[in-house]
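Quick bug: O-acyltransferase WSD1 C-terminal domain-containing protein output formatted oddly.
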Amino acid sequence: MEKIFNKLKYLLKTLLCFLIACMLLPIIILSFVAAHYSNQLVYYVLSTKYPNLLISQSKKIRTLIDTPRNAGIFHFLLQIRGPCDFDKIKQYYEQYLTNARDKAGYLKFPKLRQQLVTCWGHYAWVKDSSSFNVNNHILLNTEVYRGRSVNDGNIQEFVSDLARKYIPSDLPQWQVIVIPTSLRASTLTRETEGSTEEDDLHISEMLMLEDNSDQLVVEFGDTYRRNSRNQNLAYFVRKPHHIENLLRHIGQLIVNVWSKFNYNFESLETPDDCNRLKITCLSQLLSLLLFILIQALISWWNLRKIAKKRSFQYLKYRSNTLTFNQLLMQEAKRRNLSWKIAKNALLTSCHPVNIVSTLAAIIVQININGIILIPYHIYCELFALRELIFKGQTTLTSSYCGRLSIYVPLVVYAQIEFIKICWELFKAPVNIYEELFEYTTREPNILHMKSYSGRKIVSFSKSIDAQRLRQRVSFNKDFRESDFTLACVAGAIYDYFKTYADSAPVPQTLNTTCRTIAKGYFTERLGDKADNIGGVVFLQLPLKIPDRKHVQQIHSIIEKIRSKQVMIYLASMGQTKHDMITALLPRVLTKICINYFSFNFPVTITKIHGENSEFQTLWGQQVDDVLLFRPPQSKTCLSLNIHRFGDKYRLAIMADTELGPDHSQISRSFENYMENATL
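Here's what came back:
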């Protein structure tokens, strides 16, 4: 009885939160409209007042919270095998980035040459890039570090010192530092969020990386290894594939109908290279007008995207209508359409003889299909029904039974999936409220007591062999390798907090945010840049020395996240891809919310994963390892990046300088637990 009462109580709580969310929906819509038009007004005013600047319209969270004192500079460390050829590296960066041009002759990535400045609280690029010098950005380290040349023994401290320094403010905010060592060359790439705001610029192009694994790696072992995708938080939200299948079938049907329509009525040219059709009736005229309208819209949209990318001024506001009219006239001219031809087609269709012949053709067609062919249609339907009963499918897909056999299951399963989505939407307000306000721990820790400088330092562990780990620890679907890795991270953070036990209590649980990044983030050059970045979830990480019970506890927490944070995950992906959340609120209110939640979630964990560890530079050298250091910003002070490429683990840490030098304790403890923990 108590269980039923608790479920009823939770249902009422869910209903109340959903009703409150529905009541707030009009306010959110008004906030979106106000924020959108106010941003457009500010952009217009600043663009008019400062014509020499290109004002940023980005609504990315990092852009909003970025400050000169606490700059969000991403660091990428590449360990390149073989000799260091600095001239070749510099040549490739000039050829493929700074001097690269598109087919129209414009610079492909102009913002890489432009100085980034602030203007009334907004970022902007100085259009004049005549002072750009690639030698300020592609640097060769020839200095010694603390009396010794840089080598594998002191490169970690050297890179940390580089990360501590700001990029000069009078330069475009990116750098590539080549660090020769005895066995290999390392490159440290530093860039801000603004430097990658180019629409077509991918991280892989900044890093000059590509994936040189040209075949699928098939791994043998336990079932948990074959289903390794399920271990990552990136895949805990299943795509609605039934709805996707239904939409794909409908799309194919529309394409087939359009192709047939195109073949019958297109007057410019036909697929079999026949002569142009003459416009002799109203139906041909209307079809031609439809073609002209669609082609003009496509051309206008493509031109608009080019104009937006290049910031041209001839395709804005009032000129939009003029340009679209010009495109309509151009398409009509290509198809030899004139007012005289349209008038003749209309008069021909309205001629009494043509009207009578058209009506007669319609009546004959109705009689043939409605009377004469009825027995044949009945036979086809019965034959299709027989095949469906005995074979489960039919070859007569054009029959009603054949169509129903295809679309009825799709519609039913799509409706079930839609109901599940609606149920998740119904639960979303209460889940978000609980995860953000009820389940978060309020335990104080040393991270809340420090005053941060905004400068960053880094640390990273050595490479850890996952095969040896699996030989020492037996994993299964309820005791996963990814859960063990998180347990080792939790143990490393626990050891760090213990060093400050005299100043602050060691918490039992730590609020963290967690997201995943796929290997394609470093190697892919096509598609959306955000496709390889997963959504954010809130992870209350229990802190203790790793043991079997601890790993099982983390496993249960992850399973709970999978069931309760679906909408949080999807909303964060919407923000990453489309700036969905920041577009709803004014900038000031957005910053206040970010500061509040980042104070409660001072640690961010990023799981970077790939099926293999095969990397190669564009100039052909093998890359032994790639490390990403995501900068903590706002009130977040510690960023932990767990790299898993193939069978290699590595932890990369970026922290505020106030957490050093003990921040390296986290990487050392992570190594110790991953290599020596016995469960």
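Actually, after a second look the formatting is fine. The chain has three domains: 64-207, 276-396, 439-678. Closing.
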